[in-house]
């Protein structure tokens, strides 16, 4: 079997697997968006204090609507076991380690078409795990 055919089959299998992981968009959702994530900082465990991190998400409103969306919510963001979100800003957090969902706070629900909003998280992580990136799909929904 040629490499090209093998790559095409792998791409189809991967697309089906990723599609199965993406949650269904709520019926009241009217627009789309996407998330960008970056690690602002991370630090090792010291004494009795656990290793930690500060991460920041940017919500991008990808719509061409003529008015701003007034709310947004992310798909569940999953980290490795042992990562716990201990604080967050500019967002309302639900969930428990290792999976969390984020929604707009009172101050950043309205995002103009093509605009962005930013929120951040602070958490603990296993000492032997240096990456603090969520490994789930970074999707969201404008409402």
Report on the architecture of this protein.
By secondary structure, the chain is mainly beta. It has a single domain, classed as Immunoglobulin-like, CATH 2.60.40.290. 13% of the residues lie in helices and 43% in strands. The protein has one helix and nine strands, in the order αβββββββββ. The strands form two sheets. The protein has a six-stranded antiparallel β-sheet, with no helix packed on it. The chain has a three-stranded antiparallel β-sheet with strand order 4-7-6, with no helix packed on it. A hairpin with a 7-residue loop joins strand 1 (31-43) and strand 2 (51-61). The longest helix is centred in the N-terminal third of the chain and has 19 residues, at 3-21. The chain is elongated. It starts with a helix and ends with a strand. Residues 3-30 have low confidence and may be disordered.
Outline the fold blueprint.
Layout: H1 3-21, E1 31-43, E2 51-61, E3 72-74, E4 77-78, E5 84-89, E6 91-96, E7 99-104, E8 116-125, E9 139-142
Antiparallel strand pairs: 1-2, 1-9, 2-8, 3-9, 4-7, 5-8, 6-7
Total strands: the figure is: 9
**Domain tally:** 1
The oligomeric state of the chains shown is single chain
CATH class: Mainly Beta
User: Which class best fits the helix and strand makeup?
Assistant: mainly beta
Radius of gyration: 17 Å
* CATH fold title: Immunoglobulin-like
Q: What's the tally of helices?
A: 1
Helical proportion, percent range: 10-25%
* Uncertain residue segments: 3-30
């Amino acid at each position: 079997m040629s490499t090209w055919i093998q790559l095409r089959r792998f791409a189809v299998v991967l697309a089906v697997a990723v599609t199965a992981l993406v949650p269904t968009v709520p019926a009241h959702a009217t627009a789309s968006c996407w998330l960008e994530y970056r690690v602002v900082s991370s630090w090792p465990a010291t004494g009795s204090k656990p290793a930690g991190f500060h991460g920041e998400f940017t919500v991008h409103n990808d719509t061409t609507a003529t008015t701003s969306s007034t709310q947004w919510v992310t798909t569940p963001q999953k980290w490795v076991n042992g990562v716990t979100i201990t604080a967050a800003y500019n967002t309302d957090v639900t969930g428990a380690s290792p999976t969390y969902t984020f929604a707009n706070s009172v101050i950043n629900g309205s995002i103009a078409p093509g605009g962005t909003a930013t929120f951040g998280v602070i958490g603990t992580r296993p000492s032997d795990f240096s990456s603090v990136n969520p490994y789930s799909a970074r999707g969201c929904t404008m409402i």
